[in-house]
Amino acid sequence: MAAVLAGSAECRAAGRPYAAYRSFLPSVEMTGRFAGAGVEVRTFGVCNTRCGDGSRLYSDPITWTGPGRYDWEGVDKTVRDLVAVSPRAKFIACIDLNTPEWKASRKRGDSFNTIGRYATNTTWRTETAEWLVACLDHLERTCGDRMLAYVLMAGMTTEWFQYMKPPSAMEMNKAAFENQIYDPVVEKGKIDYWRMHNRGIADALLFFAHMAKGRVPASREIGAFFGYYNVCYGDWFASGGHLDYPRVAASPDVDFFISPATYAERGIGCGTGSMTVEGTLRRYGKRLFHEIDFRTSAFSDPTGGITKWSDVPSDLAGLTREAAFALVYGCSWWWFDLFTPSNFSNPAVLSRIERFQELHRQYADAWTETSADALLVCDPETALNCVEGGKIKLCGDRFRNKLNRIGIMYDVYSFDDLAALDLAKYRLVCLPATWVITPQRAELLERKLCGGGRTVLWTYAPGVSDGATLDASRVSRWAGVAYGTPGLSCTDRGSWKSVYLADPAALTKEQLRKVAEAAGCHVWTDELLPVAANDRLLAVHSATGGEKTIRLKTSADEVVDLLTGEVVARQTGMFRIRFSSPETKVFALKRGLDR
Fold this sequence. Notes:
The protein is an alpha/beta fold. About 30% of the residues lie in helices and about 20% in strands. It contains 16 helices and 21 strands. The strands form four sheets. The chain has an eight-stranded parallel β-barrel with strand order 1-2-5-6-7-8-9-10, surrounded by five helices. The longest helix has 26 residues, at about 190-215. The radius of gyration is 24 Å and the shape is globular. The two termini are about 25 Å apart. The relative contact order is 0.12.
């Protein structure tokens, strides 16, 4: 499973670890059932806009009814109804900052569809800030004793997205280097445009976050859906507006990012993973909020071609994988039913949710560093220098999803994090889309990364741009072979090894596993399976049943199946255990005083 945590003990998650229930609907009956399972943190929405298909994100009446006019009765009724079935409920409020319906209909435009345009509009900011202040003041006055956090939402799907392309989209999809990478001189305007677009959206988020922080008690946290680098759909990348995520993560006004799992790894047997760059959050002491929004077999209206699991055993295997991912990596999580409260209604599913609530209470505040010895490096700077629908798409989410399934543990960070990380534990470092290497970046790579006996994997055109010119001959400095050399090349560079593949699409899971093994990474399973592990916990997911061999990185006194309570192995670094088809197993690795 996609790795999350940091490369040094100093990088620890701050803030609360939440386990919550989220719905777009009041879902009063299911709220009571979740409360019965121990899940008493509940989200509710304060929403004024419609989705692109005309549907309302939340079912409550609109609250922003006109210039300076607010009607809170719908929100108040929602809170009363939820407390009636969950008397000890604590709340996370999702606040929609988009242009209200009455205003959008007059102007024939709104921030939901074009957040990039509205983000820098001072009138929109000022009017929306007045609404936000009124909303926060009302919620603090009426239910402040129950409030834990506020999620600030805007843009398409209220995730600070812009799906609409710029007017010059056709021109932006052309690039000097193989129609993939912009010339930093001739096409500087394109790079500047993407940088300005992404910075503007981040500025708007930070503007509202700063205002909210100053308006609510210090104990309240502020979060947002943001930082989606590892995405899989369409040609969305720079145009979506999330690439300035490191600056948002560094802000003291933002406490957590929320992200659904990748939409490309939702099937049984897949390895999940966040769309945001979890390690960058960890670097700045922030916590990822993992959204478990998967369609179970009880989902009544599957839409958009998103994977729906086929039966209850698959539901249990998949949901366990997602919650174990969050638990192992110290994330918060919420169970999100979308528009279908029955999504989690099966008694076996609710029983599993109840068990994970118990595990959350036991382990959520006891996070330890991951057991990762591989590192995946994301590079938003390179993404700003590329066309969106090209090879860059193969080197984000798609590359990560191959790492998911090869039985190793890896962390995910951004290029700019490298200077702050202790890289000693990493035997394999993957930079699949680091194609812009300025002199300053080159110095950092040679000083911190390219050495120590580690293996560094590159794809396509590492260093083809130095920020001033394009030159394919520079690729060999990093790849060890000439640009475009066919096949998978491994070059001994003395104190490190360089692995290069010109075509990132050609890389197979089997090849990647061999590279990881040769680099000295610990392989946890004999089969190609997703794993997640820290010093105390291990999760293994499999689509197929049968006996599986699991090899621990460090021997354990006891290995306990946390879903059954059974001790499955003692005094060992390797054990075999039978899986059902499908199944996710979660183990406690007990050593010394942990027993």
